[in-house]
Amino acid sequence: MATVAGEQGVERVKAAAQMYDVYGFPLLYNLKEISGFAEGRSSLPFEAPWNASAPARELCGKETEMVSPNNDTLYLFASLDLGSGPLVVHVPDTADRYYVLSSITKAG
Fold this sequence. Notes:
It contains 1 helix and 2 strands. By secondary structure, the chain is mainly alpha-helical.
């Protein structure tokens, strides 16, 4: 027979697990992918050091864990370290062609 204190403890653990799923996992996942890209241990098929960019020379496969990569799109990735202050990202002239500049932070 479960006690009231025991049932409350189980409910608190369930609530904590739900909070981890919502807030903790995305933070840890993004940190793992962002640092892994810069340190050569990402699920992406390319890498570049911190504050440098690297083009994708091949399409992403099923092993890629990064959020929703398109299999028919080539990417240019960069892991930026803002620990010492802001950085300016220069985007070259695209001659009126469509492009997207996306940002993924440790918070998602």
